[in-house]
Write a structure and sequence with these properties.
There is one protein chain. The chain has 296 residues and is α/β, with parallel strands linked by helices. It contains 13 helices and 9 strands. It has a 6-stranded parallel beta sheet with strand order 3-2-1-4-5-6, with helices on both faces. A 3-stranded mixed beta sheet has the order 7-8-9. Strand 1, helix 1 and strand 2 form a beta-alpha-beta unit. The radius of gyration is 20 Å and the shape is globular. The relative contact order is 0.10.
C-alpha cells in the first residue's frame, strides 16, 4: 500500500494536529472539514509540507485513497462522513483502509466494518487517548479494533502521531477499550477532586501534598497534569465536560447491553450534568472539584 495516498476527515482540536503530523511525515494529505475556515487554517499551517490538498466532500477527499482517517464528534457524525453517496466509502479504492479515530460506540464500529467489507475496504476502529496535548505532541495512545492485516497496513501512518498503537482484537475492540479508559478516568477524577478538596479544607499545603503523594501509590496522569490546576480552580483548557458526558453515555449504554454494573460511572456522569447546568460544558473534566468546593 502506498501510504502517501491519504485523507483526513475532521479537523477539530484532535484531528487538526493529527493530520498535520501526517503531512510533516511526508504524506500528501487531502483534508475535509465541515467548517471550511478550519480547512483554510490547516492548509496555511501544514498544506505546503508535502503537497497537501483540500476537498469539498468526504467522498472527494477519499477518492482513490489508500488510507482515510476520520476524527469527528459522535456516531451520527461518523456515519455522515463515511456512508452514502458523498461518504468516504463510496470513493475509496478496494484494499484501502478506513480508520475511525472518533470515540464512538462499538455498534457503529461493527456497522462500518461490515459496510467497508462489502465494498472491499478494510476498517479499523481506533479511538485515541492523550487529549489535545497528546495530539499536538504526537504522543497519543491508540487502541485499535479490526483485522490484523488491515492493522499492519495502517500502523506506520498511525505511528506519526502516537507513542503507542495496539491492536486490541476484532471490530469494536478499540471502542470497548476506550470505554474502559473513560470509566477509569471518571472514577479517578472524582477521587482526586475529593482528596484535593479534603486537603484544602484541612488546611494543608495542597501543592506539597500532591508532590508527596504523587511519589506513591496515589500517583496518576490526572494528578500529575491536573492536580495543581484543580487546586488553582483553573479549567479553561483540556478535555471538555460535554465530550466526557458523550463518552460516558456510550459506556453506560454498552453496560446495559452487556449487563455490567457501572454505579460509580453513572454517579460521576450525573455530577458532570450538574457542571453543564452551571455553564461548564467546555470546562476541563477536572472541574468536578467545583461541585465540592462550592458546597461549603
Amino acid at each position: 500500500m502506498d501510504a502517501k495516498k491519504t485523507a483526513f476527515l475532521g479537523l477539530g482540536v484532535m484531528g487538526f494536529p493529527m493530520a498535520g503530523h501526517l503531512a510533516r511525515a511526508g504524506h500528501a494529505v487531502t483534508v475535509y472539514n465541515r467548517t471550511a475556515s478550519k480547512v483554510g487554517q490547516w492548509t496555511e499551517k501544514f498544506g505546503a509540507a508535502a503537497g497537501g490538498s483540500t476537498a469539498l466532500t468526504p467522498a472527494a477527499a477519499a477518492e482513490g485513497k489508500d488510507l482515510v482517517m476520520v476524527c469527528v464528534g459522535n456516531d451520527d457524525d461518523v456515519r455522515a462522513v463515511t456512508l452514502g453517496r458523498e461518504g468516504a466509502l463510496a470513493a475509496m479504492r478496494r484494499g484501502g483502509v478506513l480508520v475511525d479515530h472518533t470515540t464512538a460506540s462499538a455498534t457503529v464500529a461493527r456497522e462500518l466494518y461490515a459496510a467497508a467489507k462489502a465494498r472491499g475496504v478494510h476498517f479499523l476502529d481506533a479511538p485515541v487517548s492523550g487529549g489535545q496535548a497528546g495530539a499536538e505532541n504526537g504522543k497519543l495512545t491508540i487502541m485499535v479494533g479490526g483485522d490484523a492485516d488491515a492493522f499492519a497496513l495502517a500502523e506506520p501512518a498511525l505511528a506519526c502521531y502516537a507513542r503507542a498503537v495496539t491492536l486490541m482484537g476484532g471490530p469494536g475492540s478499540g471502542q470497548l477499550t476506550k470505554m474502559v479508559n473513560q470509566i477509569c478516568i471518571a472514577g479517578l477524577l472524582q477521587g482526586l477532586s475529593e482528596g484535593i478538596n479534603f486537603g484544602v479544607r484541612a488546611g494543608l499545603d495542597i501543592e506539597r501534598v500532591l508532590d508527596v503523594i504523587g511519589k506513591g501509590a496515589a500517583q496518576s496522569w490526572q494528578m500529575d497534569n491536573r492536580g495543581k490546576t484543580m487546586a488553582a480552580d483553573k479549567f479553561d483548557f483540556g478535555f471538555a465536560v460535554d465530550w466526557m458526558r458523550k463518552d460516558l453515555g456510550i459506556c453506560i449504554a454498552q453496560s446495559r447491553v452487556d449487563g455490567t454494573a457501572l454505579p460509580v460511572t453513572a454517579l460521576v456522569d450525573q455530577f458532570y450534568s450538574r457542571i453543564q447546568a452551571r455553564g461548564g460544558g467546555r470546562w476541563d473534566t477536572s472541574s468536578l472539584i467545583r461541585l465540592l468546593r462550592d458546597s461549603a
